[in-house]
């Protein structure tokens, strides 16, 4: 992923290996597509992978970390695709005349599990609790009969014991998965992926954060109308104030500052 500033003409023409167009927001090239088209492109890419292909789902929190934390921003350059996960980013893309739609991590997960059955895609779940993963597999398998689950691995709460990284990598290599869904939470999941990219087996790797708990029914998801209005963060803050207050206070404030002081 390139984070240098790109001109409008360059970003309009910029396309990734999967054929999806990109458009720059604060120098970060976001995928411009609708969900079915993006999922179909990723599914086609999965069947011809010869290397790991990293996909981030970026909301305001992830965007401001990329801009504010130098090491994190540098690491994120190793990602192959960054999808607009939050409505504020979608609105900025639309201001640039890009036909952008929200590519929400939990929705991408459902779309890929459904569409990937015809292609025989195999899915691996990395992260979450044993309870969440068990319920997630049960629910998604019932909803998408025939879906292939290649395996799962639930690391303990950090700090991880010695050798945990290698155990995670070994589980991935043994699974033969085409799509790996990483629910270690932001920013840990993105950092783990870019730090281990050279050791990862060929597959698509999606950082999807809280999607495991949403689909498992362990955490209530914001109503769809709130998500369309860009107010999902407020709903989640009301549900988990102690965990999320500082995150939203810091990163939403930084986002506003960047809007006022930087070229979008």
UniProtKB/TrEMBL annotation:
Pfam families associated with the record: Glyco_tran_WecG (PF03808)
Sample GO molecular function, one term: hexosyltransferase activity
InterPro entries given in the database record: WecG_TagA_CpsF
Record keywords, A-Z: Glycosyltransferase, Transferase
Entry's transmembrane regions: none
NCBIfam families: wecG_tagA_cpsF
Protein's name in the database: WecB/TagA/CpsF family glycosyltransferase
């Amino acid at each position: 992923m390139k984070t240098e500033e790109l001109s409008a003409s360059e970003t309009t023409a910029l396309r990734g290996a999967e054929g999806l167009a990109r458009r720059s927001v604060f120098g970060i090239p976001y995928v411009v597509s609708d969900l079915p088209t993006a999922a179909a492109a990723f599914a086609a890419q999965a069947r011809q992978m010869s290397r790991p292909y990293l996909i981030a789902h970026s909301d305001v929190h992830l965007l401001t970390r990329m801009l504010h934390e130098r090491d994190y921003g540098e690491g994120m350059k190793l990602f192959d695709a960054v999808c607009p996960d939050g409505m504020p980013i979608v609105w900025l893309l639309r201001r640039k005349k890009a036909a952008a739609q929200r590519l929400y991590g939990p929705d991408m997960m459902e779309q890929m599990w459904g569409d990937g059955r015809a292609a025989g895609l195999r899915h691996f779940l990395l992260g979450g609790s044993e309870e969440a993963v068990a319920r997630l597999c049960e629910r998604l398998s019932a909803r998408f009969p025939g879906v292939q689950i290649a395996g799962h691995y639930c690391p303990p709460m950090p700090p991880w014991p010695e050798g945990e990284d290698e155990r995670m990598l070994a589980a991935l290599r043994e699974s033969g998965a085409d799509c790996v869904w990483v629910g270690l939470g932001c920013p840990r999941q993105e950092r783990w992926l870019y730090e281990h990219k050279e050791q990862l087996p060929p597959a698509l790797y999606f950082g999807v954060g809280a999607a495991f708990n949403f689909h498992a029914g362990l955490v209530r998801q914001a109503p769809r109308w709130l998500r369309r209005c860009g107010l999902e963060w407020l709903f989640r803050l009301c549900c988990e104030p102690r965990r999320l207050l500082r995150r939203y206070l810091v990163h939403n404030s930084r986002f506003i500052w960047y809007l006022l002081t930087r070229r979008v």
